[in-house]
Amino acid sequence: MPAIVVVGVQWGDEGKGKVVDYLASKSDFVVRYQGGNNAGHTIVFDNKTFAMHLVPSGVFLPGVQNVIGNGVVVDPKALRSEVELLESKGIRVRGRLHVSLSAHVILPYHIILDGLREESGHGIGTTRRGIGPCYEDKVARVGVRVADYLEPETFKVLVDQNLRLRACDLEKVKPLAQVREEVFAEYASLRKFLKPFCGDTPSLLETALRARKRVLLESAQGAMLDVDFGTYPFVTSSNPIAGGACAGAGIGPMAVSGVVGVTKAYTTRVGLGPFPTEIEGRTAAYLRQVGKEYGATTGRPRRIGWLDLVQLRAALRVNGVSALAMMKLDTLANVHPIKVATAYKVGGKRVAEFPISRAGQLDAEPVYETFPGFSGDLTGVRTFAGLPKAAQDYVLAMEELLKTPIPIVSVGQDREQTISRGKGIIWP
Ligand code: IMP
Fold it and tell me: Which of 90, 158, 246, 389 matches a 20 to 30 Å C-alpha distance to 237?
């Protein structure tokens, strides 16, 4: 059976966790392939809400195996907290979670360095989870992989080497000896916790794919935060786009048979950086309040904007999206009229493509098309025909303008609040 990639096609927080949880009911494996505990995937079912950061969103379905791929950066302490929380709520994790031996490990000094950079005057509004500095070490070839973390002698040598390399910065915050102490304070117990979860995940996935199991590959963040295709430098340090799934999970591209893009019915962004359709004022405040638009990881209020087809087209292209899930259609109810950006003006000229230059992205002024709004409470609707006509028309218009089917429409956080249109559908 094939693998399907689920990607965010905006600036993250689109609702990927819900889509993965929804599709996971027909899957055997869910694999996280990049990012770390900067992510916040909210899953709601049976009146329970879980905000997940590292553990893949398949963990709530008992028959699903979950993999943290080599492309992820793993903070062992954060992982332990999350596993303990899940187990305290009766969710079995042991035996169902597999962590790649090749994934890189976030250590306390990465978190210090992330904070330092943010406060240096060159910050981009990161989650301060140490993500960027950990990926820096990875590409600088000085990183600590899970396999290294499990070998105390290797670990010690690498930590001492890295503390020396980063001493100049770290000593601005605290003495090196103190940082070292923090790294080793819980090392023995964290190592003991982590060990049983670790393994050769590409082999595991190869066996699964050969046995025709269904594999879902779950991105964190979104295409516009991709280090290559996002609004650089206001991006994360990995490749959330679908192409990143193979490198971050250790499977070949021929295994992937579909890419599900996840978008909200409007747009949000957290952190700094260009956001052409951003709005402020009453409509923004209304959508933030109704949509509970606060970061699941940091609690920061999310910036709000209209749906942006220029941005979405660029994202659909670089991800090769075969179907879209449109989230939070219910939140957009009672907003009249609805605006959607169909082009930009940059330097006074009309453009159809998302600008690549920093100046162009900051300059981009949206050209809007207006759509009739819809009223009422959509959260109890379970069929497409049951939606107000203007809401149906909005989805159909986006499908047409984006030339991409939208087989999933979400009208609430709960697993049940999902409308399946059964079209262009996900699993063959
Ligand atoms: P970092 O990934 O913590 O280095 O943050 C880099 C940028 O990505 C910042 O603008 C963050 O706000 C943003 N970011 C990281 N993770 C998420 C996420 O899960 N949702 C939305 N934005 C995110």
Answer: 158
